[in-house]
Structure formats: structure tokens, C-alpha cells
Amino acid sequence: MTPMEGALLAAIIVLALLVAGTLALGVRLMRRLSAPTAPTGLPLSVIVDDPEAVAERERQRQTLTELQNSVADAQAALENERRSVASARAEATAVRAENAAAKAEVTTARAEAQRVLDGAHAEADTVLQRAHRQAEEDAEQVRATARRTGEREIAMLTSTAKEQAAEAERRLQRLDERERLHTAEAERLAERERQHVEEAERLAERDRRIAAAQAELARWEQALQAKEQELAQAQEQRRKELERVAGLTADAAKHELVESIEVQAKREAALLVRDIENDARATGEQRARHIVVDAIQRVASEQTAESVVSVLHLPSDEMKGRIIGREGRNIRAFETVTGVNLIIDDTPEAVLLSCFDPVRREVGRLTLEKLVLDGRIHPHRIEEVYDVARFEVERMCQRAAEDALVEVGITDIHPELVTLLGRLRYRTSYGQNVLKHLVETAHIAGIMASELKLDPDLIKRSAFLHDIGKALTHEVEGSHALIGADVARRFGESDEVVHAIEAHHNEVQPQTIEAVLTQASDACSGGRPGARRESLEAYVKRLERIEEIAGAKSGVDKVFAMQAGREIRVMVRPEEVDEIGAAVLARDVAKQIEEELTYPGQIRITVVRESRTTEIAR
Known about the structure:
The radius of gyration is 68 Å and the shape is elongated. By secondary structure, the protein is mainly alpha-helical. Helix 9 (434-451) packs antiparallel against helix 10. The protein is 72% helix and 6% strand. It has 15 helices and eight strands. It is an enzyme of class 3 (hydrolase). Its EC number is 3.1.-.-. Endoribonuclease that initiates mRNA decay.
């Protein structure tokens, strides 16, 4: 019995006892009501009219009624408990049924587990049998693999044995060949010994002939001495005869001899002077090279970076529309006033200004920059800003000229020349800024003059003013050298400076050391690597010519020009060119390039001779 069933049974027993007690009490009351007596033991008929008896009977009737109600309630409660007991029994029955079902499921699960276990045993037996068969098959495969491996190893051992036997055979052949070589070497040694014996015999014969020749020479010397004595006597007789015939004394003859010796000495002296001059010229050229190299090394200048186009960055692309204006009115007014072409394309936040006059282009750039910063862009405003920008550019040119004069160290110069020098701030020659070129040339010329113990101030002045004519080439016809000389002469420069200016491009032959040093410093500044731009066509032609020079040599396979033509890689065929030939080829190519081409800096020639041997290991 479960605890719940016990509790229900106890509750039922308690209710049954309560109901039984209530029934017994009700029966007892009913008996008392059916035979009532007076409190004194008298019959009921005697005390019918007694009020207390009536009240007592009424209380008993009420009590009986309450007992009846309690009995009814107890019966109802008992009925409820019975129903509860019935439902509890039904639930207990359901629980027992569930327990029975659970026991049945457990039994079924045990049966299923037993069945699964039996199946697992059977499957394990099957797998074990299959594993036995697989193990036998694997063992058979292993035995077959081992058999094949053994056969391969036997074949390899057999081939190795054959190779070793062949190697032993080759060694025996090499030993035989070495024995033959030793035999041949012994024969050559015997032949050489025989030759040495013959050579000794020939030397002995030569000694005998030399001894005979010496004896003959001694006889000839005696005969020669006799003839010399006879010749001396004949010369004395001839001298006397000549003196008699010519009527000259020995002193007069000596005088004529001295004159002839003097002529010969003068000729030899002229030859010596010529040799000394050639030596001095060679030494002077070497000294000049050292001076030029020292001057170039001591001057550190910029690379060329000038252009004919200026770029102006804008705060936003909206500004392009304001620059163009309504129907292009602003851009037409800007180009008309400044003389600069304004290019507005798809470049974000930037416009281009194009003009071949650098001063005018700078004025236009400054004008447009001020207009963009101001924000007010219209034709009248463009004219106002252009006047302000032109004044600022002129002031910047003046300041640039003064700074250049201070850097060079020139103070006393005419103001008009300063103005012309300022114009060169925006002038370029082959991409090189002319004002910077003048400063660089002056520094180089001053260093050369100091090395040669000359006046550096005069030579620096000549070099600094040598391109002053480029500031007026678009206004005056003629060469800038002659124009610059006329300008310098008109503004009070000395004759040495004027001559150096007019002679620096050989329109006039240089006659002074100042002119020569001006030419040299100008060439050094303009010809150094990176000073001036080189045209693409000339650059390509130089590279093609370099490759042609190297490719025309015998044994060359390929030629590569690298690092913008500063290095040449020459690939040669190793079977045609050996190590010494590669060195000779590099020297020949370098010498031919030096003789035929003009280029900045230096060109490295690298000859590559590569030999490759490839074998495959199987």
C-alpha cells in the first residue's frame, strides 16, 4: 500500500467514526424526546402547561434540528469523502495501470536490449570474421609488397654491383691510360735528354766557332789599328794639303766647326723646347681638370625642376564654375588681361596655367590665387588684382636679384642691371633656372680663380653677368652674349667683364683669362648631371647607339641598357669569350663610348660570362 492510499484510508475511518458517534447521539435524543418526564419525575401530562417545560422542549427540538442538520452535513461530507475515495481509488488504479505499463515497457525494453545485445554479438562475430579475412588479405598484400620490394632491392643491388663493376673497369682503364701516359712521358724525357746532349754538342761547337772568331777578331783589330794609323797619317797629310789648298789655318777651321756645332745645338735646343712645351701643355691640362673637378665638387646645386605649366590648387570644385563665370566671361577676361592660358579639366580641385613667358605665368598664377582667396571674381576685379600681382612679382624679382648679389658677393652694380637680373628669376634654359645658373657659375669661377692665384672678384663678376642678355632676348634681336655685352658696356662695366660676356659662346674669340674661365665655369654649370633636361629623342638615340656599340662586338649575345643608360649589361657566349676576353671587351666598349658619345656623368659597362651545367637526379 502506498502512503497516499494509507492516508485516504485513515481519513475514511475517522469520518466513519464521526458519523457513527453523531448517529448514536441522535438516537439517544430521539428516545428522550419520545418519553419525556418532568424534572421532578412526574408524567408529561402533569407539566404540560408549565412554561419552563415548554421552553425546555423547544430547546430540545432546536437541538434535535441542529443534530439533524449536522447529520445531513456529515452524510454529505461522507458522500464527498466517498467520492474522493472513489476518485483516489481510480487514480490509484490508473497509477497501478501506469506502473503495470511501465513494467511492461521495462520488460519490452529488456527484451529489446537482449535482442540488440544478441544482434551485437552476432554482428561482432561477423566483424571479427571479416577482420580475420581482411587481416589475411593485408598480410597477403604485405607479403606481396615485401616480395616486390625485395625484388626491386635485388635489382638495385644488381645494378649497383654492375655499376661498381663498370666503375672498376673504368678505373682499370684509367690506370692503363695513366701507365701509357707515364710511358709516353718517359719517352719524352728520353727524347728531351737526347736533345740536351745534342744541344751540348752544338754549344761546344759554338764555343769552338767563337774561339776561332775571337782569334779572327784579334787579327782584324790589329789590322784595324794599322789602318787607323795609316788613316791618321792620311788625315794629317790631307789637313796640311787642305790648309795649303784652302789657305786656312787651324783656328779658322775651328771657328767654322764651332759655327756648325752652334747650329746643331740650336736645333737640339728647339727640339728640347718643343718637348718641354708639350710636357707643360699636358701638365696644364691635367691641372685644369683637377681645378674644374674641385670647383664642381665644392658647389652643391639643385636638379632641374622648371616647367612651362603651373598648377593652382582650389579649395573645392565649385570654384571652377566661378572662375569660368557666366558664359565664360571671367575666364576670357582673365586670359585677355594676363596673357596666360587657363586650362580647366577634370582634375579635382586644381587648374593649370600655361604660358611660355615664365614671368607672365607667375603673374597670372598669383592673380588667380588672390582671386580665389578673395572669392570675388569678375572682369573688373581681375584687372585690379592683376595690377597688384604684377607689382608683387616685380618686387619678388628685385628681391631675388639682390639676394643673388649678396650670395655671390657683388655690391657695386648699376640698378638697371639689378632689374634685369631679377627678370631671370623666372627664366629657364633647357629647364635650368638662369638666375641660379648665374650664381652657380660665379661660385665655380671664383673657386677656379682662387686655385690659379687670380683675382676672384673680377672673374666672379664676369661669370655672374655672362647671361644678362637673356633678360632682353625677346625685346632685342641678336645673340644673348652680344646683347649682354652691349648692356654691360652701357651701364659702366669694365672692358674685361664686357669681353668675357661677349666671348663666352665664341661669337668673339676669348683673349683674356677672365673670358676663358667664364667659358669653363659656364660649361661646368650647364653640363653637370641633372642641371639641364635632355630631350627624349636624344636620350633614346644615345641608348640605341650604346646598345649598337656593345652588340657589334664579337661573342656578344645580348645587351641591356639599365638605370637610364648609366649601366650597360653585356651578356657574352662563354664558349667564344674567355675571362681575359671579357675584360678586353669591357675596356673596348668603354673606350668606344667615350670617343663617340656625349653624356652626363659616367657609364658602367658590366660583361657577364655565365656557364651553366645541369644534371637531373632520378
